[in-house]
Design goal:
Elements (H helix, E strand, L loop, with lengths): L1 H16 L4 E5 L16 E4 L5 E4 L5 E5 L8 E5 L6 E2 L2 H12 L4 E6 L14 H15 L1 H4 L6 E6 H12 L20 E4 L12 H8 L5 H6 L13 E6 L8 H13 L3 E6 L17 H9 L8
Helix pairs in contact: 3-5
Length: about 300
C-alpha cells in the first residue's frame, strides 16, 4: 500500500521539485496546532482530466513560486476541493506560474482537510493554516522582496470559502495559543466560483458537511457564512463565477458582493453566463480570459514602497 501511495505522489512531487523557481516548506516547522498525533493518511488521485487531486492532508505545506523580478505583490493561493482535498496543480501551481509571469510572487497552500481523526477542532484547522500562511509571508516580506502591505489571498470553490473566511475573521487568531502578533489580515481577497455561505439556501452541502459536520449548530452556520461577516475593515475583493454553476450557486458570489457594497468595501465582480464549476483558469465557454481581468485589478494597488 505504501508503494502504491508513493507512486501516486510522484506526479505532484515531480511538478513541485522539478522547478527551480518553487520551494515547498512545512507550514509549521515547530509543531502543528490543533493536531492529533496519528498516522498521516494523505494520498494523491490521478483524475481523468490529468490533474492530481490530493486527499486527506493532515500535514500542511506552503510552496513558494518566485518570479525573477518580483514587483512586491504576493498572493497566497488556496486550491479548491470541497474540503475533501485540494486540486493542487489545476487551481494552485498553474495559477502561481501565471501570476509569476506578471512578476507577482505566489505561495500555494496545501491546507489541512477537516477530519475529526486528525484535528481536535476540524472546523478551525483550514483557517489556522490560512492565517499561518499570511503570517509567514508577511513576516518574511523583506526576504522575498515583498511589500508587507500588498499581500493577498486567493481561493477557488471551497478554497474560496477559506480565503473569504481569512478575509472576514482576521481580528481573532484561529489558534488561541499563537503568540506572533504579525497581522493576518489579507490586503486583498480573490474569490473564484467560491463557496461563500453555509446557509441551506446557498451552500455547497459537501463543503459544509466536511467542514462543520452533518448537523452544524446555528451559531457555526452564522460564523462560517462569510457574507454575514463582511465588515468595513474587510479587504477589497475580486469575484468571478459562472451563472450556470450547478455545484456552487452563483448566489454565493452575489451575496458576498452585496455584503461588500453594504459595508463600503471595494469590490469587483465578473460573471459569465456559462462555464459550470471547477474550470480553473480556462473557461472554455468564452474567449474572455478572467486571469487578464484579475491582473488588471491587481495593478490598481499601489506600487511597492521604498
Amino acid at each position: 500500500m505504501k508503494f502504491f501511495i508513493l507512486l501516486l505522489l510522484l506526479p505532484v512531487f515531480s511538478v513541485l521539485h522539478g522547478q527551480s523557481d518553487s520551494n515547498e516548506m512545512p507550514l509549521y516547522p515547530d509543531g502543528i496546532p490543533n493536531y492529533r498525533n496519528v498516522p498521516d493518511e494523505e494520498w494523491v488521485e490521478r483524475r481523468d482530466n490529468g490533474f492530481d487531486f490530493i486527499h486527506d492532508t493532515s500535514i500542511p505545506t506552503l510552496t513558494a513560486f518566485l518570479p525573477p523580478n518580483p514587483n512586491g505583490q504576493a498572493v497566497v493561493i488556496c486550491p479548491g476541493g470541497g474540503y475533501a482535498g485540494t486540486s493542487f496543480i489545476k487551481e494552485g501551481i498553474h495559477v502561481a506560474k501565471s501570476l509569476n509571469a506578471d512578476s507577482i510572487t505566489a505561495f500555494v497552500l496545501k491546507y489541512r482537510i477537516p477530519q475529526d481523526a486528525h484535528q481536535v477542532n476540524k472546523s478551525l484547522a483550514p483557517l489556522q493554516d490560512a492565517q499561518q500562511a499570511l503570517r509567514y509571508v508577511r513576516s518574511q516580506a523583506a526576504n522575498y522582496r515583498l511589500d508587507p502591505e500588498r499581500i493577498g489571498i486567493l481561493g477557488f470553490s471551497a478554497g474560496g470559502h477559506l480565503a473569504a473566511t481569512a478575509a472576514t475573521h482576521f481580528q481573532k487568531m484561529a489558534d488561541s495559543q499563537e503568540k506572533d502578533t504579525t497581522s493576518v489580515r489579507p490586503d486583498f481577497v480573490i474569490l473564484l466560483y467560491p463557496v461563500i455561505s453555509m446557509t441551506d439556501e446557498l451552500t455547497h452541502m459537501g463543503s459544509r458537511n466536511n467542514l462543520l459536520g452533518e448537523k452544524p449548530s446555528a451559531s457555526d452556520i452564522m460564523l462560517f457564512s462569510t457574507e454575514k461577516n463582511v465588515s468595513a475593515d474587510s479587504p477589497p475583493a475580486f469575484l468571478m463565477h459562472a451563472a450556470d454553476d450547478k455545484s456552487v450557486p452563483v448566489g454565493n458570489s452575489l451575496a458576498y458582493y452585496e455584503a461588500c457594497l453594504a459595508q463600503g468595501v471595494e469590490v469587483e465582480m465578473h460573471l459569465y453566463p456559462k462555464g459550470g464549476h471547477g474550470f480553473g483558469m480556462n473557461n472554455s465557454s468564452t474567449a474572455d480570459f478572467w486571469m487578464d481581468r484579475l491582473k488588471n485589478w491587481l495593478k490598481t494597488f499601489p506600487e511597492m514602497k521604498d
